[in-house]
Amino acid sequence: MGHAARSPGLAWWRTGGASESGASKSSVVLNSNPGSGETLLSTALHTPAQLIILDQEGRVSSHEAVVPRGPLRTQGSAAAGGGRGRSTWETMPTATSGGLSALGRAIQAEVLECRSLDELEAVLSCHTSELSYVNVSTAWWRLAKILPRRALAPGLMPTMSPDIAALVQLLVGKTLGTVHYMTLREVSNCLWSMRKLSVRLESQPHGHHLAELIEGQLLDLAEGGGLASGTHAEQIWYCFSAPSKASVYPWSDKVVSYLAAASLRHLQDWETRSVAQVCLHWGRGGIQLTAEQQETLSQAVVAGVAQQQGQDGMQQFISLDHWLTGCVLLSLMLPTATVKALHDRLLAAPELIVRELGIVEYSTTLKRVLDLGYQPAAVEAEMWRLRLLDPLLGGDGNRLSLQDLTSALLALSYVAVLVPDEGMLEAFQLCVQARRRCSREDARRMIAIKKQWGLRLTDAEYGALKRLATAS
């Protein structure tokens, strides 16, 4: 590669013995575009070197001695993959994204290999001026994955340790300079990670500006058909549907409405689990849909439920819960046959699945079926009683889980044909007698059960439950 082949605007690394008139086989050309991160590498930087700056006409304008930051691992890249949580998919970053340079791939591999905050901080500090938009997105994702669980609870930036806050601030700044290069894959990874990290952009330097840039990039990508990927849409809506206390930013209603409409246009392109996830996020986020949009989503739910018929793996039951929760919160109208199908699959869940879900979630899912208008027949009601109460009763009363028992009794109290028998009444009395160790939610459920079944409590018992239910 001779001097005549050099392009204007490039930075030229020249390692040990190369002559200034041309590049030897140990030369490295670095593209000066910080957003794309495009870099042409012909060798790793292991020896003392010079950085030669070319002017716009391709002439050498300056050069200076540079001490390389250390060897880059340029061989081997992490394979693309995916991860699954109970709440949302994660779009696993890849070290070989289209257009990523050799230097970018090397940095990408280093970021993906980080297993601690110290390792990630070292990599980002070492390459802070060389991070491409893919590297920035992956760094967000990696930070969210390695963050200690105690810091992942819904909260604000002040709850983060100083080292985490410093990394977040660094990534916010890097995202500002690269977000306009990002595809939906990178933007969705950034948003998912910000929600996981409880980032509040309003409290970050230039956070408002970054939020506006993200909104603009999302609109551009959505207009270009970017939401055809349900996996990416899940991550975006996971971030956008956060409750106010855990919200990354008060996103524009106009942007939210536009993205919802764009998502609905692509529902038929998504996998069933993605439709279920987005339905859940919209319900939890209180997304406002028009009557026509509700009908479109309802049709997608009907199709998704039919498609999963006969599948009984854990993921299918997680999707079932997502369907039910989203539909109830969005007030969707589903055909009776679809709700019946959801009910039957739930009632027939294998014991292993029920144990994995837990009685609280299993009972809550039954309550959502009832909220959608289905009422079990007498035989079905008896089956529900056995499934929910038998695992809970008969043991040591001191070890009884009030959360489990009150959740089960509350769901059963809404089954119209089910009259509480002696065993159910005794179970309720066990809860009342254990009221001193019940939570606020336990007390609220007990009051609701009392009203549903018309049960009697002493003034002292009822007064104690009311005080617990209203305690701050």
Automatic annotation (TrEMBL):
Name this protein carries in UniProt: Uncharacterized protein
Region (Disordered): 1-30, 63-91
Highest taxon above the source species: Eukaryota
Biased composition (Low complexity): 16-27
Source lineage: Eukaryota, Viridiplantae, Chlorophyta, core chlorophytes, Chlorophyceae
